Amino acid sequence: PMNKLIHQVEWWLTYESRRTITCSQYMRDQVRDIFQLPPTKLDVIPNGVDLEAFEVKSDLAAFRASVIPDGHKLVFFAGRLEYEKGVQTVLEALPALIKEMPVQFHIAGSGTHREELEKLTTRLELGEHVRFLGFLNESELANYYRAADLAVVPSLYEPFGMVALETMAAGTPLIVGDTGGLRELVSHGATGLRVAPGDPEAMLDALRRVLTDHRLARRIAMDARRRLTTEYSWASIARSTVNVYERAMAEEKFLRSTIREERVPLRVILGRSPLLAARSS
User: Fold this and answer.
1) Does the pTM exceed 0.70?
2) Do residues 35 and 26 make contact, with C-beta atoms less than 8 angstroms apart?
3) What beta strand segments (E) does 141-270 contain?
4) pLDDT score of 275 more than 60
């Protein structure tokens, strides 16, 4: 019932709004199809990231020495521990990888899938190589991002991918699932590597490539951070958002000058929802 109510309200909001903003082209297509909106009503403005927040002032060498054994590679994940985040894909790739090099995989975050991930870790005999960190504050996250040899965002489904932006801001090489908004954020081979979602073999190849090719790792990290300064700065996003508001105001003014405004009761609007009609049938 709660999901049904949320969908009803969302449909009404997109119906009533003069403009609708989504955080990625992927979500634009989703919203257009679900709520049957005309494409001309939709604008895409990505989320942004504060680069200064990831300029760690602490001693990263000392921090790294405190969290992993000397000589080990550090792979990092941060996010909700849910099935669609794909952490299991990395775990399934680890047994083969640790035969080739000493690796630690540290997982920050919590969620309903944590118990299953812990069971998988035990089943794969990865106890010495995997740590579940739970919740980390912003400074702890920044330390991990900067200290890691690479970060992974192995999502099976992802509308945008804030963790990917944060990794790029920290100047750390990145591997992501080739899905949703992540596909738009990361240019394969240029600002990171994309792998088929849920494919441990593809993940293994990408992990091996980044962890052994230091020139590649440095290049994609530098190019990714450089891209953030132009496309994902809050100043740029603010300007784009103001432009959308100004367009909405101009459209509203024009419509008010040409037609008589009629306010339709919410209960009537919800009753017209194609989504509800489909469900009731």
Assistant:
1) yes
2) no
3) 150-153, 174-177, 193-195
4) no
